[in-house]
UniProtKB/TrEMBL annotation, chain A:
Signal peptide: none
Matches recorded under Pfam families: HATPase_c
Name of protein: Anti-sigma regulatory factor (Ser/Thr protein kinase)
GO MF annotation: an example: kinase activity
Organism: Lutispora thermophila DSM 19022
Source taxon at top rank: Bacteria
Keyword terms of this UniProt record: Kinase, Transferase
Segments forming domain Histidine kinase/HSP90-like ATPase: 37-141
TrEMBL record, chain B:
One Pfam family of this chain: DRTGG
Source organism of the structure: Lutispora thermophila DSM 19022
Name of the featured protein: DRTGG domain-containing protein
SUPFAM superfamilies: HprK N-terminal domain-like
InterPro entries, per database record: DRTGG (IPR010766), Ser_kin/Pase_Hpr-like_N_sf (IPR028979)
Domain DRTGG stretches: 5-105
Source organism superkingdom: Bacteria
């Protein structure tokens, strides 16, 4: 199987469509007949990343690359960037305003959840430029 | 516990997904925090929540939850119900509060997820 790649733009504050990209990603993996356990991990990681783009970023792109060994989800945004990544990674830490909390998000679990879903998790951020998150989920025999 | 039995003990109304009433539920999880749902929930779980926006349905879809109970008599908008229908999720609504609904289900033998094991 060759590499498969898809990209989904995600708009800032578009709560109406938030989750659509992750839903499409989940359907793609289902169509490929992947194991439900890995599909779930990818879907949850992608959805947390997508919600972060909607809530915190100025907009960005979620992409998925599937190769014979792994599934890679990348979330890249156009800013504003994270000042203190270590603090942002802390469970329970959130900068989300009340209106986001009222929607059930902003509990400070997004980034830790993404890390938990991944075999390999990379976050890079430059204030004023943007944030890039790469989640790699390794495929095992049977996935 | 079958979803139809959960419906009966909570005197709940089914808003969509009637075809799933015979499905077996292994665990229940009550929360209005969707990130906690994503972090803790296992498959075979029914979600009890007081949030009625489309993100609840998306969260359920991502976490392989196919049954949701809205508590405190909450009923979501039609587009939220439509999204649940598209995602093959059964939605029920009960007049009981989150605490009371959870207590009733617990007394019927349904158990929660052990947060330490997930």
């Amino acid at each position: 199987m060759g590499n498969i790649s898809y990209e989904f733009p995600v708009a800032k504050d578009d709560f109406e469509r938030a989750g659509e990209a992750s839903s499409k990603i989940k359907k793609i993996l289902r169509q490929l007949g992947m194991d439900s356990g890995i599909i779930r991990r990818v879907a949850i990681g992608a959805y947390e990343a997508e919600m972060n783009l909607v809530i915190h970023s100025l907009g960005g792109v979620i992409s998925i690359t599937i190769d014979p060994e792994s599934i890679i989800i990348t979330a890249e945004d156009n800013g504003p960037g994270i000042e203190d990544i270590e603090l942002a990674m802390k469970e329970g830490y959130s900068t989300a305003p009340d209106r986001i909390r009222e929607m059930g998000f902003g509990a400070g679990m997004g980034l830790p959840n993404m890390k938990k879903c991944s075999d390999d998790f990379i976050i890079e951020s430059v204030v004023g430029k943007g944030t890039k998150i790469v989640m790699k989920m390794m495929l095992k025999d049977g996935d | 516990m079958k979803i139809k039995d959960i419906r009966d003990v909570l005197q709940a109304e089914v808003l969509c997904g009637e075809d799933l009433l015979e499905n077996e539920i292994l665990y229940a999880f009550g929360s209005d925090l969707m990130s906690d749902v994503l972090a803790f929930v296992k498959t075979g779980t029914i979600l009890l929540t007081g949030l009625v926006n489309s993100q609840v349905i998306r969260t359920a879809e991502m976490a392989d939850i196919n049954a949701i109970i809205f508590v405190r008599g909450k009923v979501p908008d039609k587009d939220v119900i439509d999204l649940a229908r598209e995602s093959s999720i059964i939605i029920l609504t009960t007049k009981y509060t989150l605490f009371t609904a959870s207590g009733i289900l617990y007394s019927c033998g349904l158990r929660g997820i052990e947060a330490s094991k997930v």
